[in-house]
Design a protein that fits this description.
single chain; Alpha-Beta Plaits; eight-stranded antiparallel β-barrel; 7 helices; globular; disordered N terminus
């Protein structure tokens, strides 16, 4: 997600070996694998075509890959990210991911061709470890999602950042925010060495985002956030996507 994520909005609420170590140190934090595709439209194709194939995929997954969740990410507030549309997928654990990948590679050929006719995702596919900060137990539905790249400050680790984001999230929720949030630690396929993790913040709709904006900007949220994050982590400018749920997998 090199250009995907890069501060006011970014700090609003809130897999490589390093990420696994960070998760292990945070006893109460459970890491789960997520994947991201950055894709470009094939000639003449658009969101309606992808949603159509996504529905076919959801039906296929109901029979073959019940634990996989997926969202189509349509850029909203952003600059040129190097792709037209994103696909975010996730599993409740690594065992589900491994089984899912084997099932797709052995039985998803026809659907893969249908996806390829709509989008070209060949240049951007990466894996990360997601750690919930303030998130529902079940996969969230459609809504909006913000991403920001974050850098750990000297002497700090992943668990330190997660703890700080948890404090900020609790503060914002206490003031009336309804945001959900996660930290994504980059892993296989990531080429951006300038960030240590992604801050991910989701809302059910723009109304919830607007309320949280007022809380953060006019309700003292930014002052408290600055104090909490000081000396721990620094997050860059954020980007926002409309997130369309393709399917919510079984998280049990």
């Amino acid at each position: 997600m090199k250009k995907l994520l890069a501060v006011v909005v970014a700090v609003m609420v809130v897999t490589g070996g390093w990420a696994q170590s960070a998760v292990a140190q945070q006893e109460q934090a459970k890491g789960a694998p997520v994947e991201f595709y950055g894709c470009n439209w094939q000639k003449g194709m658009g969101i309606a075509d992808l949603v159509k194939v996504g529905k076919k995929f959801s039906q296929w997954a109901d029979k073959n890959d019940s634990k996989y969740s997926a969202w189509i990410l349509t850029p909203q507030y952003q600059t040129d990210m190097g792709f037209d549309v994103g696909w975010l997928g996730g599993w409740p654990d690594g065992a589900a991911m491994g089984k899912s990948m084997d099932t797709w590679l052995s039985g998803g050929h026809q659907l893969a061709r249908e996806f390829d006719a709509v989008i070209d995702c060949s240049k951007h596919h990466e894996l990360a470890t997601a750690v919930a900060v303030n998130a529902p137990k079940q996969p969230p539905g459609s809504g909006i999602v913000m991403f920001a790249g974050c850098e750990l400050l000297d002497g700090k680790s992943g668990p330190d950042a997660i703890a700080a984001h948890k404090k900020v999230a609790d503060m914002m929720v206490g003031k009336g925010s309804k945001a959900s949030s996660w930290a994504f630690f980059p892993g296989l396929g990531n080429t951006d060495s300038n960030i240590d993790y992604w801050q991910v913040v989701a809302f059910n709709n723009y109304s919830e985002f607007g309320v949280a904006s007022d809380i953060f900007i006019n309700g003292g949220g930014w002052r408290e956030s600055v104090d909490i994050f000081r000396g721990v982590t620094r997050c860059g400018r954020g980007v926002m996507f409309d997130a369309t749920l393709v399917r919510a997998g079984d998280s049990s």
